[in-house]
Structures are given as C-alpha cells and as structure tokens.
UniProtKB/TrEMBL annotation:
This is Beta-ketoacyl-[acyl-carrier-protein] synthase III C-terminal domain-containing protein. Pfam families: ACP_syn_III_C. Keywords: Acyltransferase, Transferase. Residues 222-309 form the Beta-ketoacyl-[acyl-carrier-protein] synthase III C-terminal domain. It comes from Candidatus Gottesmanbacteria bacterium RBG_16_38_7b.
Length: 344
C-alpha cells in the first residue's frame, strides 16, 4: 500500500475501578466475574473527561513523539461510539484544539469497536491515492454500560492516535495489506436517544466476534500468503480477557505472540481504542522487520485485519508509552465511579 505509521500516542485515564468493588454492590462474587470475563479492573474517565479530551491527549502525544507539526495533518478521522455530541463532530473539535488549521478533511466514524480501524483504512486509501500526505486516525471511547449489566465490568475509557503518511525511512512501521468483512449481525446495539447499549449476551460470541475475526484474519493470510508462524505478534479486539485468547489459539497463534497486546488485562475494554491500544503496546517493544497481525471487531458486525511490518525500533521519546501510563493509576470506589459518569 506504500502507507506507513509515522507516529502514535495513547492516553489512559488516571483512575481505575476493580471488579470486586462492582461485584460487591450487586451481591456477586468477584471470583465468578473474573473467571467468566478474564478482567480484574478497568480504566475510568474523570468527571471532566470525555472522548474528545481523551482523543486530544493521545493526539498531542502522537505529534510530540513524531516531532510533527499539527499543520502537516491533512485529515482527521475519529472512531468512537461515545461521541459527546449527536450533531457536532468530534473530529473538528479535536482539529481546533490541536491547531491543525482549516485545510483538512474531518469526519467522525461509528462502527462499534472497529470504527478506528475503518478510519485507518480510509486514510490509508487517501494517502495511497496521493490525495493527502498525512492523516490522523483516533480511537477514543468512554464506554457506556448499564448498571448491573455484565458490560459494567469491562467497559473502560482510553484513546489511541496514529499518524499515517506515505511510507518512508521515517516511519515506524508499514501497512502491508488489509482485509474487511461485514454482515448484519446485531449482537450489540443502542437506539438513538437510549443511554445504555443492549447486547445478545452469550450469543455475541460464535456468530458475531469469532466468525468475523476469524474470517477477516484467514482471508488476509490467504491474500498475503502469510501463516501464523510468520508473525512475531498478533493483536485482536479485546471485549473481555477470554475472547482474544480463544481466537488466537483457534487461528494458530501462540500465547507468546499474543501476550504483549493484551491491554484488556490492565484496563478492560475501551471499545474503539481497544485494538489500536494493543497495537501501540506491541509497537513499543517491536524490532525491525517484525510482522504484526492486527484484527479488530465491531458489533453490527464487521472486522478489519491488517498485516503490519515494523520498519524500525521505536527509540523516540516514549515517556507516555503503554507500560508507563498503565502503571500510573489511582483506585476509586463504586460511588465515585457513578459520580464520574453522571449516574448520580
């Protein structure tokens, strides 16, 4: 595709909520929840944070890490399912805060948890067609969950920003190929005006997540003639701690290939930011010529898969990388969590 990752940045909110605190409120056993979901705690946005502020923090870090001027950005595409406004784009607010100027393409995308990887495909296409030089794609969510719903234990907050450009020696990695699959499989949904999403419970597994993730991954490997053993790392969307481990095993990947990407073990599922955060955690440690398989998933339903080759070890200023941010935290109780989310 001749498209590369020039830089990236992430932002994980400071606060964490342990699942045992949620379970205690609803008379559940924490061990049962953790065994079922494979998640022990999640990141929580403060009362004055939303998907825009998270996206801004991640994007500033991406610009700083790559020593890139905001005026170089020709497109901003933001993927989220918690845009603060129903009518008023997150992308233009972000562009204004960053000081991008006026001559850029802006758009908000929605496709549940794969909106940001769809943005990656769209921006890559514009760069590959020589329509723009540099684009910023963002996955940012303050994930919603109804109190006493199983999603309450996993729905988290975070953002990841990636700056794409035409591939050059300056790029950290190259996007080699991608594959997408889509279907009308309503495993997770939220009607307009309804505050919290609904879902199909255990039926969100086989006909939804596993079917689409496996199909897009297998199709891409056939297209590129790569096999699981050719990849140093794999990254899959992480709605919980069990699904990515199960699908990796079913596709023929090892625990060693998957482990560095499992951000869900530390912060839960930040929806549109999930798979991108997993990718950035891998890029933090990857070496030149390492191959990465990245496969997202979005309810509704669809999956985007990418083959990415690392061009150089990331030795740039990464004080705000995943390992540092995830260890910077403060635990809150359930009442504070409800206050932060405006539920009381």
């Amino acid at each position: 595709m001749d498209v590369g990752i020039l830089s990236y940045g992430i932002y994980i909110p400071f606060y964490r909520l342990k699942n045992k605190n949620i379970a205690a409120v609803w008379g559940k056993r924490a061990s049962d929840i953790e065994n079922s979901l494979g998640v022990k705690e999640k990141s929580v946005a403060n009362f004055d944070e939303d998907s825009v502020t998270l996206a801004y923090e991640a994007s500033v870090r991406a610009l700083q890490n790559g020593q890139i001027s905001a005026s170089e950005i020709n497109a901003i595409l933001v993927g989220s399912e918690s845009h603060p406004y129903a009518v008023n784009p997150t992308s233009t607010i972000l562009g204004e805060f960053l000081g991008v100027g006026r001559h850029y393409l802006a758009a908000d995308l929605e496709f549940a948890c794969k909106a940001a990887t769809t943005a990656m495909i769209a921006v890559s296409g514009l760069i590959s067609a020589n329509k723009i030089k540099t684009g910023l794609i963002v996955g940012s969510d303050c994930a919603q969950a109804k109190p006493h719903d199983v999603l309450e234990y996993t729905a988290a907050s975070a953002a990841a920003s990636i700056i794409l450009s035409r591939f050059s020696s300056k790029c950290l990695a190259e996007i080699i190929a991608f594959s997408s699959v889509s279907s009308d499989t309503p495993d997770f949904w939220r009607r307009d005006g309804v505050r919290f999403p609904s879902h199909g419970g255990r039926f969100t597994g086989e006909p939804a997540y596993f079917y689409h993730v496996e199909l897009s991954s297998i199709n891409l490997m056939k297209k590129t003639k790569f096999k699981p053993e050719n990849f140093k790392y794999c990254v899959f969307h992480m709605p919980n701690g069990k699904f990515p481990r199960a699908v990796a095993k079913r596709l023929g990947f090892t625990d060693k290939q998957l482990a560095p990407s499992l951000i869900v073990d530390h912060i839960g599922n930040p929806y549109s930011a999930s798979s991108l955060l997993g990718l950035t955690a891998v890029l933090d440690i990857a070496q030149k010529d390492d191959l990465i398989l990245l496969t997202s998933y979005g309810s509704g339903a669809g999956s985007d898969a990418f083959v990415i080759r690392v061009n150089q070890k990331n030795d740039r200023n990464r004080r705000e990388n995943f390992a540092n941010q995830v260890n910077r935290k403060k635990y809150i109780n359930y009442v504070d969590y409800l206050k932060f989310n405006g539920k009381i």
